[in-house]
Amino acid sequence: MSNCVEQHNWKFYWRLTESAGVAIYLAEYKGRRVLWEATLPYVTVDHQRSSEEVIDEEGARDHGPWWAPLGTRTLVGGVRVQTFHGGVEVSASFAVGPYNYQQLWRFHDDGRICPWLTIFGSGVHDQHTYHPHWRLDFDLERREHDAFEHFEDGRWQRVAEEGWFPYTGEADEHGNVWRQVDFGSTTTVNIRPHVWDDAEMFAIRHHDGEWAPFAPRAGGAGSQPYPAAYVGSEPIDGEDVILWYVAHVHFDQSFPYTAGPWIKVEA
Predict the structure, then answer these.
(1) Which domains occur in the chain, in start order?
(2) Helices (H), the chain
(3) Contact (CB, 8 A) for 182 and 140
(4) What is the pLDDT of residue 87?
(5) Around Cβ 142, how many Cβ atoms within 10 Å?
(6) What's residue 219's pLDDT?
(7) Cα separations (Å) of 134 from 21, 98, 115, 260?
(8) What pLDDT sits at residue 189?
(9) Model confidence over 149-164: pLDDT tens digits?
């Protein structure tokens, strides 16, 4: 199977990684580059206990938060590429202990990208919270000269420095909460959270060689997990920006639940 897909106004490449699911890279929409690379580095699981419970040290270790890689060692079957009405999708299934994950990248002919993850399996129960992490490196015409904006206080506000930008319930008239804009071309990528994701965004200045570590707490980050460990006070206005979309999926009767952002390219 070729790893290049060219359909429905899109041209992109995909590859199966060791620990970050199916990666999408060098994506073009209507002949214009919009994405350098997008991956799913981590899906962590928290066991939420009530405050009345007595937790011994061993029990705390047994119940998380914990993580296992989605990649070549946990893949079930193969990577699938198929069309649907109005688009094309790349999907893969992973089994990690009692948890199952269905990863999906959907590309619509109107410029939408849907990086989604469905969570299910016998290990899902009412004291779990699941945290999928997507790393999104958009490349709007060129790497630099981008602006990141967050919708708050009733308007779009440009962000000057790296930071953490949670979804607080505010959105523009289309439901968008975050966006990245290229100064020269005015190409825009709008991002809105899925219905119950309880989502947050991290905006981080890109540095060559600064990739997502193999594990969420690897590489001497101390008590800070990634991507929070990357956040400092570096300027990002007019720079190459990396976005991390993190969903916090709390158990309810809707499981199996599909998490992930809605992304729309306006070129």
Answers:
(1) 4-47+65-266 (2.70.98.20)
(2) 57-62
(3) yes
(4) 97
(5) 13
(6) 56
(7) 10, 22, 8, 8
(8) 97
(9) 999 999 999 999 999 9
Structure tokens at 61: 């270790």
Kindly report the number of other CB atoms within 10 A of residue 78's CB atom: 10
Is pTM, for the whole model, over 0.85?
yes
> DSSP class of residue 239?
B
Q: C-alpha distances in angstroms, 235 versus 79, 93, 157, 207?
A: 38, 38, 15, 12
- In tens, the pLDDT along 166-194 reads 999 999 999 999 999 987 788 899 999 98
Confidence of residue 2 (pLDDT cuts 50, 70, 90): confident
What lies within 8 Å, CB to CB, of 75 at 6+ separation is 16, 92, 93, 94
Distances 11 to 27, 37, 51, 139 between C-alpha atoms, Å: 6, 13, 50, 14
Look up residue 13 and give its DSSP letter: E
In DSSP notation, 25-83 reads EEEEETTEEEEEEEEEEEEEEEE---TTS---HHHHHHT-SEE--BSTTTEEEEEEEEE
Residue pointed to by tokens 């804009």? 181
- Whole-angstrom Cα distance, residue 115 to residue 55? 36
Residue pair 138/235 in contact by the 8 Å Cβ criterion: no
Residues 6+ positions from 144 with CB-CB distance below 8 Å: 238, 239, 240
CB atoms closer than 10 angstroms to residue 46: 16
